[in-house]
Amino acid sequence: MPSTPRPIRLLAPDEGQTVSLILPLNKTFFETGGNKKVGDFFDYHTYAKQNGDLSFGAPVVLRWDDPASARVLLSDSPTLANARAYDAVGGSAEIYNLIPGRTYFWQVQTETGVSNVRSFCTETALPRWIKADGMSNIRDLGGWKTADGQMVRFGKIYRGCEMEFHYQIEPTGRKVLADELGIRTDLDLRAEAVGKIEASALGNDVDFRLLPLLPDDRVFDSVESCRQVFGVLADESVYPVYLHCWGGADRTGTVAFLLGALLGVSYEDLCLDYELTSLSVCGDRSSNSDRFQALWKRLQAYGEAGDDANTLSEKFLREIGVTDAEIKSIRRLLLARPGEL
Fold it and tell me: What gap in Å lies between CA 323 and CA 35, rounded to an integer?
């Protein structure tokens, strides 16, 4: 950097502007209640197959007036403490995978100039989709509200697809999961990985846990694996966790449903999270489907008439051996008041 760098003028977003992290069609899906009946009002999955995967968020587009090679610093602190650096050229950069409802601060630096620090805010809209090259259907389980006024923490547990067979993570995608998201544990639910996968595709620094289980109502026939999965999630040292099966839809969706219910997320929001997979190339998912309703019916057998999803999930998990201490730990690790997120 020269001793007297020339100023770089930041063009967009405006100071303090709120920007969306959600693609317009995804927002419509969310606001109209999801995919309760496949093809009822819009065939999202066919659209995704014909027009490209929709299971990622909209980028924040940063623009400035210098086309030279630049480094963009982005932080949640006005001092740019612990800033992440992005390389850019041409006077713009697309930034993916930011957290909803946050204020970010950014600055542009080149060999001949530097900008001032400007802020923008991200819209508080769910879900937080994750874009990782080679992958599909990745989203943060954070942000959902609970009945007692808490929220699931962002950045703790992500659900998504596999990384080796039908989907193959690219080096840039690996950097997103391992470096940007800081994944510590690869929690794999695939029976088909047994004897084939012995380490995480994210590298040897990521703990690989292979706990195969069955999806939907068949999870009740693989309760030991289910118990072990929740035992893992009670361990503070495993986070952040990447939870996946093949497409991040059925086995992953089943665990996500039980986990979200245990945390106090409403049945309606649990259904919507399950249905968001319809925006990926992994297939239509509807909470009115036979497979989802079979899960719900089997779960109801663990409670009394009128029990909500939260009560039923807790009763089921206790029945299969998840301890009081583990349930308490999971809630402590994954829940927070909105101001604490």
Answer: 35
Q: What is the pLDDT of residues 263-300, one digit of tens each?
A: 999 999 999 999 999 888 887 888 999 999 999 999 99
Residue 74: what are its φ and ψ, rounded to 5°?
A: -135, 130
In 3-state terms, the chain is what percent helix, strand and coil (to 5)?
35, 20, 45
Q: Output the six-digit token pair for 265.
A: 């997320």
Is the separation of the CB atoms in 66 and 8 below 8 Å? yes
Sign of the Cα torsion 73, 75, 81, 86 reads negative
Q: What is the pLDDT of residues 98-125, one digit of tens each?
A: 999 999 999 999 999 999 999 999 999 9
Q: Which helix (H) or strand (E) holds 313?
A: helix 309-319
C-alpha to C-alpha distances, 88 to 29, 63, 122, 199, nearest whole angstrom: 32, 10, 21, 33
Q: What is the dihedral of CA 257, 325, 315, 298, to 10 degrees?
A: 40
Please, where are the H alpha helices in 107-250?
171-175, 223-233
